[in-house]
Structures are given as C-alpha cells and as structure tokens.
Amino acid sequence: FYAITGAIFIQPFFFSSLHNLPTATQKPIWARLLKEPTGRDLARFHEQASTSQLIRYFGVLNSERVLLMDPKDIKQVMDAEAYEFGRSYLIRRLLSPALGKTSLVVTDGPDHMRCRKIVDADFYTQHENARLLVEDVTTSSTDRDGQPLGPDNAIEVLKWLERATFRINILDTAIKSEDLSDEEILDLCTTFLATGYRTVSVALAWAIYHLSTRPGVQALLRTEVRANFPAPDQSGALPLASDLLQKMPVLAAVCDETLRFSPLAALTYREVRTDTLLSGSNQIIPEGTILAISPWAIHRSPIYWRSGDPTSEPSTASRTAIPSPSTWDMTRWLSDKKGGARMQCSFMPFGRGPRCCIAEAFARDEMMILLAALVGIFDLSFHSSGRDHDPRPEELRVSFGVVTEPVMLIVRAQPVFGW
User: Which residues are annotated as a binding site?
Assistant: First the structure.
C-alpha cells in the first residue's frame, strides 16, 4: 500500500528525474487518476508549451509520460533507432490478450522484423480487383430498389461501411512461408482481422463526415469521380487500378486531408529501454520512461505545417494560399503537393519507420476507391452523432481508443442519378 501510494502521489512530484521538463496543465489528480489523456489532450498540451521540445504529463495512475515534439527526436525514436525503443508496457498489456503475444502490433526486435518480412510482399501483390470492393459496399448500402437502407435515408456510417468485404490472403502467405509457428500464424491472422477490418472503415467514416458538412467539396469530388471512374453497374468496366487513382487530385486531396486532420491513431507510445540521449532536445531520458508521439497534435502543429503562400517562386504566386493546419481544408493539397508539410515526419497517419503500417498503400487505395464509389452514387449530408443523436456537426462525438473514430455518425444518403 505504501509503495503504491508513494509511486502515485509522491515520486512524480518530488523525486522524478524529469521534473525539470515543462509540465502540462492537467485536471486535479483525483479527476484523472484512472484516465489516459487523448490525442486531443496532447494537442492542447502542445499549445500550452508550443516552444517546448519535450512536455511532461501524467497518464493513468499518475504515471509520467513525455510527449515528443522535436522532429529530430521523433525521427530518432521511430526511424533511426526504432528497435532501441520498445513497445510500451501499456500497449503490450492492452493489446496482447486480444491480438496475441506474437502479434506484429506488440512484438519487438528480431521477432517483429522476421514476421513483417514474411507478409510484407503480400500487400504489393494482392491488390484485388477494385470493382469487387465497390460492389460490396454499394450492394450492402441499398435495398432491392436501389434505395439506401434506413428511415429518412439515414444510415449509421460505420455499420454501413463494415458490410464491405476487404479481401487479402494473409493466411495463405503465412502458411506457405514455413517460418512461422502455429501461434504466430494465429496471432498474425487475428491482428489483420482486428486492424485491417476496422481501420479502413473508420478512415472512410471520417472522410464521409467531412464531406457531409461541405457540400461544395463533395460536389467537386463527384464531378471528378464521374469523369474518371467507370460506373459500378457498367458492364465490362475495367478494374480500377492505382494508376487511375493517381489522375484524380481532388480525391487524393480529400483522402490525404482526412488522414491528416483525423488520423486513426491519435497517439502511439514507446518505452525507453536504457538511459538515452535524445538528439533533438539534448535531454537524457531515463530507462523505463514512456514516450508519447501524437499524430493528432503533430498534424495540427504550425511547427510541422506551413500556411500562407504555397511557395515564394513568382511562377506560382497566383496559387491559392495554404490554409491553417488547425482546420480541415483539402485545398492545401491542391496548392502544394506536400500540403504544406515542412518535413517528412509532418505527415504520418500510418506511422513511420520499420513499425509503420504494413498495409499503408493497400489501405489508402481501398479508401480512395470506396470513397469514390460512395460519393459518385450518393449525396451525403450530416444527420447526427453520438448516442444522444446530437444534430450539430461541430459537436461530433469522438472516441479516442486504439482507433480514433466518430461515435454513431449518422448521415443521409440520397442517390444521385445520372452516372
């Protein structure tokens, strides 16, 4: 009892080796003792100390965390020395029971590298016929008369999208490799069922939310889609390949802006394995410290994203100014091919380095194809969100879990004929 009390109420305030770091302003300890700060909280911490490279804050049971904001520190932890910083104890305890102790999400070092190498190639060879994906989601979204399912054309977005089938034969690849144990194969399949099934649906839900509150952007996207995509019911339509997607700047801009402003993983953790000097902040971090990296905060930070003129070159002076990173505005990607990103680690919706999402390219293509099909067929307008069905789009309910998702987002989906 005394040890636990000391660890929670005394050590962080009086004996911590990190006491010299700027500390975030948080609620009283009794109001946050059993809560872990969300990505939205970390963005607020960064605003409180915007010039700081490191920010100390407190998580569940008042345990110390260090929020990284310096680009060099982030590259060191996620790229250059990625395997020197382990998966945090918090993540292992949270996800191992569900995904297995050999899951790609929780393993480290040689085990992670070996398993990733086996399945990595599969995502470069199994881009399924995209027309099947389109048929899955459009068929599941309508009744026999082609009308959206649900009263008043109102549909709960995530339930709607999860009816689509995302096909990739990871099991066959794992078995053929003969380099994985039965336990590793089981954990691998569980991981892809849990992560691949949900994440693309959530990314699409965020895109639908942003478009449902911006009819002008939605109309612009529909025009581009119908000019370039074969209609889903068109007989003999060619498969929708990645090279076709590259010719659709508005679709790419909408998807990139959605992944920037509403990243699926609002934050990720790393655990310091041995006393380490962070090169950017020039700070020694003691062994066992939990480091937090928040795409939610980074993607909104002026440290990482420019605004204003897209470039100083006279030839492009007439181009639209880049909007503030604190707002959702897909024109930033039309004004500047990097969206105003100042550096490589400015944009990391799928993570960075050897632990980045193995299915990044596959997931992004799925997102673009399905969003194009939905916007091509339906006019989407915001209805409500949350269990109380709040009709105000600016009060969208958000769940900050393993995946950051809108809660009970409901939109009206009205067919738009003429495609």
Answer: 357
